[in-house]
Amino acid sequence: MPIISSPQDFNVEDLYVDLRPVLGCPLYLKCEGFNFAGSVKLKAAAQMVDAAERDGSLTPDSILVESSSGNLGVALSIIAAARGHRFVCVTDPRCNPATMRLMRALGAEVRVVSRPDAAGGYLASRIAYVRELCASDRRYLWLNQYANPNNWLAHYRGTAPAIDRGFPGLEVLFVGAGTTGTLMGCARYFRERGRPVTIVAVDAVGSVTFGGVPGRRLVPGLGTSCRPALVDESYIDDVVHVPEADTIRTVHRLSAHGFMFGGSTGTVVSGAERWLAAKYPGADPVAVAIAPDLGERYLDSLYEEHWLRRHFPDLVPELFPGAEPDLQEPAEEPCAAPVGAPADAPGGEAARELTAVTDLTDLTDPHRSRP
Ligand SMILES: Cc1ncc(COP(=O)(O)O)c(C=O)c1O
After folding, report:
1. Is 350 within 8 Å of 91 (Cβ atoms)?
2. CA of 37 to the centre of ligand 1 (A)
3. CA 155 to ligand 1: nearest atom
4. pTM
5. Closest CA to 151 of 212, 201, 76, 80
6. Confidence band (pLDDT; 50, 70, 90) for 366?
């Protein structure tokens, strides 16, 4: 019976879903959503904060700041709350409003950068904002998940050894690529031990991480509009790019069997299914994919009919066969604005509200930042 006194001390590391009954192909899904942060990001957040406390860069005076599409922000909000640190999360309109509310409820301050960057995403704009913030006040400490080696070390020390223990005969590992911390930590672990594991990176169509053409992406978590500093392709055996329509089809297929996962899991599972059908037709390799989080945070987007009507209308008849074609949309669009949309685009309400209530230097509001 685990008894804990710090929220990061609990994490289910050994739960896998056998997806054969759902997909008809051999794939075990490692579930990373069963902890207080609800995602794989708790590990990276804990490792980065621990290292900064150890090396003295994080002091009681510091204000943590990080660019996150949501999950790292939630994980850092939890750790900051547990340890009495202040935390500012810089995000963009694709972050789910519920996730923003969660971070604020945990005492973090959320700032939304709604100006798209040159690649049509928000990453460069978010990072430029973080740099400005750090230049404005020496108390800000940017952990920089995109370049911080403690991000991949968390998976080198935690996620990969756990998979190795569970599947000593592992042949193929599918890992989604966001910052590539999970991917690089796992890839380094198996390569350095000389293990014959094929490492397959799964990315979204429209992401530039592996040199793709930048394009619209609405599903948070995977993909980048700037190549992350952590990525090293020499450790990666293959890359699969998944269109977001397939991501959405896949999460709905999984939820139809009672397994509600987040969007990036849909991407990874869809890419794994396609890759296995092409490379191991009719065969039975030992294959594992990593599911970074669960589905509840996406109820207002990937699982929501109006959101799908707005962003993926072609999918609606397939996913909601009984839906009325002339269904009224709700007065308030519940999820994020599309990439490239102006701040006042439909769906940007929550983001705009948060942008409006926050201020570059105002860290004194006790409802938005830790005293
Ligand atoms: C839901 C989700 N999936 C996947 C990832 C990607 O993980 P990584 O940054 O380790 O590549 C993230 C990272 O934030 C995430 O939140």
Report:
1. no
2. 13
3. 10
4. 0.88
5. 76
6. very low
